[in-house]
Amino acid sequence: MEANEGRWDLSALYSGFDDPAFAADIRRLETMMGEYRGQVRRLEEQGTVLDAGVLADLLAREEAMWVVGADLHKFTEMSREVNAGDSQAVSAMERLKKLFGSVAGAVSLVRRWMSGLTLTEEDYAAHPILRDYRFYIHQELELGRHGLERPAEELLAQMEGCAGSTWSDLRGYLTAFAHAPLNGTEHTLTQLRGYIHDSDPALRKAAFEAELQCSKSIEGGVCFALNSIKEHVNLMARQRGYGDALSMTMVQSRMRRETLDALWSAVESALPKFHAYIERKAKLLGHTAGLPWYDLCARLGESEQHFTIQEAHDLLTSLLGGFSPELGELVDRAFQENWIDFYPRPGKSGGAFCRNLSNQKQSRILTNFNGTLDGVVTLAHELGHAYHGSLIEDHRPLNRTYTMPVAETASNFNETLVMNAAIEKASGAEKLALLEQRIQDYTQVICDIYSRFLFERQVFEERQNGFLFPQRLCEIMCEAQKRAYGPFLDPQCLHPYMWINKVHYYSTSLSYYNFPYTFGALLATGLYARYQKEGAGFVERYHAFLRATTVSTVEDAVAVAGIDVTTPAFWAQSLRAVTALIDTFLAMTDNR
Asked: One GO MF term, please (predicted)?
């Protein structure tokens, strides 16, 4: 692990872009896609009516393409994420985009054919692949109703390589290499953002000001990227008959709009308690005009805990393994088998993520580990994604994809396990510091995520009528921050450029990747409450819920754990557990 300099090992996929296996898989995928297109063309020419047997054959072909394509795409994507300037990765990604686009029209045509097919119980019994993909088929039928004519689908898919997701690539390139001076040294945007947790208030402020300067230097290019992506999505939502981007997201998420409305209704009711926390924090830090943005994540007291990679391994193996031995074993594998790329470096993506390699029954995690408890909690979060992946890796390939809302549940559950243990163990000033840190984390997934949702919704609406220049984007962001965080932020020190920092806005295929963080955090809070009440007997229900997330709607999967998310009641209950922490914090700091 140390000899590998804390970098992940991707050799389970390929040893590099010059690996003969990589080239061979590209050729295999090209062949399979060509055969699939040929089969669809023959069916079209013959006027063949789609029946159960033909559908079973086509799904088997799609399954095989998915297996090979997933490895190629993930290797290429992860290679680029740790080195934005990797020309081989950029070139390979462009080739894959065109390749995936070449089959989009044929897949869309098959989905339209499926809309006229009624499968019987005899069909499912005669074709095991149809039985295994019963839910998948139902979902594809729903998406297929929104498909365009084949030439349009093919054109759109092929244009992804020169438009569409290429705008996301531009944003990634600009943010990876943008830099600004701080204390006489050039820093990347990722490095500057990392100082938000620093113990030195002067450094936090200086880094924030440098971050704004750095963001402004690339605002033009990123602005065009955001406008182009949102116009693309608006166009697709209209053309496909969804009406708007949020309605399209709900269908893609396998989630009902009433569930999202119930979530935000409960959040809005709880916001005043978070505002009280922000007001108290500003007072404790000596701010009279409200809490400035650069102090949102300031620590009220310092935890003296600092972790090496080995110490993080030992702590997480113990804590997470205490909940589930299988989870502990996965954590150990992740560290020992170099699944994790730990440290920041120029050209590497900021933040953290996990990619499940279900074909290999492994995962890979990117983080920017700094040795703090925060860094350990981030590792726990991403290991939650890996654990989720391990519980669905034995599903058939096309049944291994969970949607956005449930994607953040296992990760937040892990965070809860680690932070609650840390708070319980601590005392005195350290206990207060950790309690405030936990509240701060919840404030991020409640207030900040709500502000991001409000921002994205407004951008989608305004983009229908014209281009949004950087100044307007900054205005919308500040308006959203004021509404979500309340009156106790310093109005002269908001973060107008958060739209540059968050990659979640920059996807043509996945919009509103913000509310899932709130959904996941509060769902995890509610699940943890069940675990506290039921003990070890709850663990298998939790596993059953995670397994169900790829083969059920959001509402049906959560029902496996005995939870109804369609009304505000469950969300309000979870939020009460959070606001109870705020009440404790307010009581502990009342005389300070």
From this structure: metallocarboxypeptidase activity
Nearest-angstrom CA–CA distance, 392 and 457: 32
What phi, psi does 366 have (nearest 5°)?
Answer: -105, 130
Note whether 254 and 554 are within 8 A (CB). Answer: yes
CA angle 12, 18, 24 (to 5 degrees): 75
Alpha-carbon distance of 538 to 546, in angstroms, equals 13
Beta strands in 151-250 (DSSP E): 179-182, 185-188
CA distance 133 to 59: 9
Residues 6+ apart with CB under 8 A from 424: none
3-state secondary structure 261-275: HHHHHHHHHHHHHHH
Average pLDDT, the chain: 93
Full-model pTM? 0.87
CB hemisphere CA count around 274 (13 angstroms): 29
Place of tokens 């300037």: 85
DSSP assigned state of 291: B
pLDDT at 236: 92
pLDDT > 70? residue 441: yes
Closest by CA to 524, choosing from 548, 542, 540, 504, is 542
Cα dihedral 521, 527, 533, 539, rounded to 10, equals -130
Q: Which of 93, 223, 218, 229 is nearest to 506 (CA)?
A: 229
Nearest to 297 by CA among 438, 422, 430: 438
Q: Which two tokens stand for residue 373?
A: 């408890």
Helices 104-114 and 150-159 sit at what angle, rounded to 10 degrees? 140
349 contacts 172 by C-beta, under 8 angstroms: yes
**What does the alpha-carbon distance between residue 205 and residue 223 come to, in Å, rounded to a whole number?**
25
pLDDT at position 2 over 50: no
Q: How far apart are CA 190 and CA 487, in angstroms?
A: 29
